[in-house]
TrEMBL record:
Keyword Nucleotide-binding set for record: yes
Catalytic activity: ATP + H2O = ADP + phosphate + H(+)
Protein name as it appears in the record: RNA helicase
SMART domains: DEXDc, HELICc
Domain Helicase ATP-binding, first and last residues per copy: 56-236
Residues covered by the DEAD-box RNA helicase Q domain: 25-53
Keywords associated with the record: ATP-binding, Helicase, Hydrolase, Nucleotide-binding, RNA-binding
Claim: ATP-binding is one of the keywords in the record: yes
């Protein structure tokens, strides 16, 4: 009987919030602070996305929330706005530790969230201090960052655990002060090997703390975290994402594929870019880091300036490249997500407590972090130079365009070997134009003649580069 009543309440509440998600409420009607609304307007944001319409009122009511919504749906503001609003209400309070923790899986995401929070605070002209931690910081740097203490702490779970272990943060202070705990990209945190780190601080999270889990997919990991962290028994999983493709691939992204011999991928990419068949900015995904460098050099010889982004680059360089790309300093970025390459299968399975295997897993997963959650600004086109190895990889790559209310396109170059993956993608998203907008179809704008007209020059450049790359030892012989 009790279970039925709880089920009914949950059902009714879900219905209410489903209705809220589909109506046209403004930020003001959601109860967002006028300063934050003005700040959003300065960023060109004037109406909430569906996940924001649903999540913001709930979070403002103080509920624990598990928010599941597709990539690029605006989850960051869905938690940042109510979190800041709560802090605005009590700017001058004395405290022993930060009032809010935002935990994310990678350093790039720490940086991304940090930039977003600081810019909102500055635009609102409110005195709040934000600290961003990373695992390269020495205990003295961590101590300095936490002096004050800041109002908001943005960190990976590992770095937070380190602060506790080194005595930089006191469990009692967390227990006395923490009001909001946010786990962003919650579906990734455990797969990044953070379980023990999370377990090391959860006992110190006070029962009164509001906990939010933001995630792009549902998984057993999210359920595990939910059990580990959420205190408030009223947990609402927001009904935005189901298990079908319409829920995960943005409807405003046109998806194309091109059949292309494996050896001609450089040439086809060149043709697509040189003939301006796609709209900028362009994010190109390769499965192999060497190939990304080769592609960069090749395009450069045709006057197309690009940068590479992969987990082998030092983190500072990665952050710098992301910042420059997002600031519009160049239009083409070649990213490698090694988790989509064969190397992933060769990774040793994680043994219990095995330091070595955990390290290896972290390395591979941080490379996956190049794709997941990163908000590449104003990307219109995603090119799969190599097909990702799974439909999930495809969905995450495509999710880098068509973010929030913008539109976008994707083109996948498919060699004979990759046809099987294309078939899987087709089975998932559909390949029949009549089925609706959310399908993958053959790219109609690149003719064989157009490709062939570039072949001779491309081959000359290719041979020139071949000797060049041998000398430089930067790239391998293709
Ligand atoms: N209400 C809005 N209107 C227009 N743009 C928005 C709105 N809210 C957020 N955005 C923009 O949409 C983009 C995607 O938002 P965000 O990074 O929060 O998505 P996400 O759901 O966290 O995606 P992912 O799961 O990939 O991390 C950002 O550039 C953000 O500035």
């Amino acid at each position: 009987m009790a279970a039925t009543t709880t089920e009914n309440i949950l059902k009714e509440t879900m219905q209410r919030y489903e209705e809220d998600a589909s109506d046209d409420k403004s930020f003001e009607e959601l109860g967002v602070d006028a300063r934050l609304i003005r700040a959003l307007l300065k960023k060109g944001i004037d109406k909430p996305t569906p996940i924001q319409r649903v999540a913001i009122p709930l979070i403002l009511e103080g509920k624990d929330v598990v928010a599941r919504a597709k990539t690029g749906s605006g989850k960051t503001f869905a938690y940042l706005l109510p979190m800041l609003q709560k802090l605005f209400a009590n700017v001058d309070r004395k405290k022993q530790a930060p009032n809010a923790f935002v935990l994310v899986p990678t350093r790039e995401l720490c940086q991304q969230v940090y930039i977003e929070v600081v810019s909102l605070i500055e635009l609102c002209r409110v005195q709040l201090k934000v600290a961003q931690l990373n695992s390269n910081m020495q205990a003295s740097d961590l101590r300095a960052a936490l002096t004050g203490p800041p109002d908001i702490l943005i960190s990976t779970p590992a770095c937070l655990a380190k602060c506790l272990f080194d005595g930089v943060l006191q469990p009692a202070s967390i227990n006395a002060t923490l009001e909001t705990l946010i786990l962003d990209e919650a579906d990734l945190l455990l797969s990044y090997g953070y379980e023990n780190d999370i377990k090391s601080f959860t006992p110190h999270v006070p029962r009164s703390c509001q906990c939010l889990l933001m995630s792009a997919t549902s998984s057993t990991d999210v359920d595990k975290l939910k059990k580990l962290i959420l205190h408030n028994p009223f947990i609402l999983t927001l009904p935005e994402v189901g298990n079908n493709k319409d829920d995960v691939i943005p409807k405003n992204v046109q998806q194309f594929w091109i059949s292309c011999p494996a050896n001609d991928k450089l040439l086809y990419t060149l043709a697509v870019l040189k003939l301006e068949l796609v709209q900028k900015k362009v994010l190109i995904f390769t499965n192999d880091i060497d190939m990304s460098f080769r592609l960069k050099l090749f395009l450069e010889k045709f006057g197309i300036k690009s940068a590479v982004l992969n987990a082998e680059l030092p983190q500072n360089s990665r952050l710098h490249i992301l910042e420059e790309f997002n600031a519009g300093l160049f239009d083409y970025l070649i990213a490698t997500d090694v988790s989509q390459s064969k190397e992933k299968d060769e990774a040793p399975k994680e043994g219990k407590g095995s330091r070595k295997s955990r390290k290896h897993k972290l390395k591979l997963d941080s490379e996956f972090g190049v794709v997941r959650g990163i908000d590449f600004k104003n990307v219109f086109t995603v090119i799969n130079f190599d097909m990702p190895r799974s439909v999930a990889g495809y969905v995450h790559r495509i999710g880098r365009t068509g973010r929030a209310y913008s539109s976008g396109a994707s083109i996948s170059l498919v060699s004979t070997d990759e046809m099987e993956t294309l078939e899987e993608v087709k089975a998932f998203v559909g390949d029949d134009e009549n089925k609706g907008s959310n399908t993958i179809v053959e790219f109609p704008f690149l003719t064989k003649n157009a490709v062939e007209s570039l072949r001779y020059r491309a081959e000359v450049i290719y041979h020139f580069l071949f000797s060049f790359t041998l000398e430089e030892k930067t790239c391998k012989q293709p």
